[in-house]
Amino acid sequence: MANIKDVAKLAGVSPATVSRVLSNKGNTSEAVRARVQMAIRKTNYVRPGGAKPLVPGSRTICLTIARNSTDIFGNPFFDSVLYGVSSTVEQHGMDLQLAVFHSVERQIEKCVQLYKQNKVDGLILTGILSADKDRLLRTFHEEHIPFVMIGRTFRHDVFSVHNDNLRDGYMAARHLIDAGYRNLIVLTQDTKLDVFAARISGYRQAAQQGGLDAGPERIVQVGPEEEDIMDALQRLLDEGIAVDSVITMDSVMSLSVLKFCQLTGLRVPQEVGIIGFNDAPYLVKVSPTLSCVEMNGANLGAEAFHLLNEIMNEPQAMSLKKNVTLPSKLMIRQSTSRSSFEDR
């Protein structure tokens, strides 16, 4: 079994330098750190107390999320991301861990521990709350942990794969306008989350181009429960705010909007159009079927793995940074097909 001297010899450094890299202490250049990490992989060196050697065939990837479990399980976006990551990891003969945390503090603590103990070789991050990005990404950089983020960030220079959420918000709103709707509203759980904020900006661009009202009263923040959504829609009607179409931030919310319309006698799509984000099998099992912007979570997950694998194979690539934008797709169904219902 290789020892620390074998690693040092292959990397062309002293054993003390290898020790500093392993413990993340002292001043070590990125170039030296990359050589040491590559030597560790080539020699299959295992630190005392480590779990496994760092060889490609035995690599373990960790998909990590710090959100409430109610925000994750059953969410079609996270389901498809998990499918994309897991299937691609399996194709490459690697292992996958799924780590869900209820706080970013615990996520940071546990992920750093897993990496230092050689239990995982790289991380894929998704579902990061905007307020947590600074601490999370800064810590992983300081610890020199290979990672890729699913989702866009304008304030951090990291490897990431994402959709163009501004374009997607514009596409959803533009579709409604082209279908003849004029009184659009947006239902969102959060107006500050990067993903939602970008979609709202896209909606506003489309509304303004169409000469439509895009005032603040048309961005409605709601709670996560169906009752919250129904109460918000009822308040809009009670206040006399004209509504003939609704953009929701996920497909589960679209179901709640459809239920509200059915309970109140509003016809979909003749009187109210509905479109959301993230496709799901149940959207075509209801009547009318529900339109959406498909975010292709499986493709995001697969591409995130490919980026991470690139970093793990060439650690010096971490200093280059890379962002990949994947296209979304408009899925037009009955809930926004006003013209097909005109004669009914």
From TrEMBL:
<dbReference type="InterPro" id="IPR010982">
    <property type="entry name" value="Lambda_DNA-bd_dom_sf"/>
</dbReference>
<dbReference type="InterPro" id="IPR000843">
    <property type="entry name" value="HTH_LacI"/>
</dbReference>
<keyword id="KW-0804">Transcription</keyword>
<protein>
    <submittedName>
        <fullName>Periplasmic binding protein/LacI transcriptional regulator</fullName>
    </submittedName>
</protein>
<dbReference type="GO" id="GO:0003700">
    <property type="term" value="F:DNA-binding transcription factor activity"/>
</dbReference>
<dbReference type="Pfam" id="PF00356">
    <property type="entry name" value="LacI"/>
</dbReference>
<dbReference type="GO" id="GO:0000976">
    <property type="term" value="F:transcription cis-regulatory region binding"/>
</dbReference>
<dbReference type="Pfam" id="PF00532">
    <property type="entry name" value="Peripla_BP_1"/>
</dbReference>
<dbReference type="InterPro" id="IPR001761">
    <property type="entry name" value="Peripla_BP/Lac1_sug-bd_dom"/>
</dbReference>
<keyword id="KW-0805">Transcription regulation</keyword>
<keyword id="KW-0238">DNA-binding</keyword>
<dbReference type="InterPro" id="IPR028082">
    <property type="entry name" value="Peripla_BP_I"/>
</dbReference>
<feature type="domain" description="HTH lacI-type">
    <location>
        <begin position="2"/>
        <end position="56"/>
    </location>
</feature>
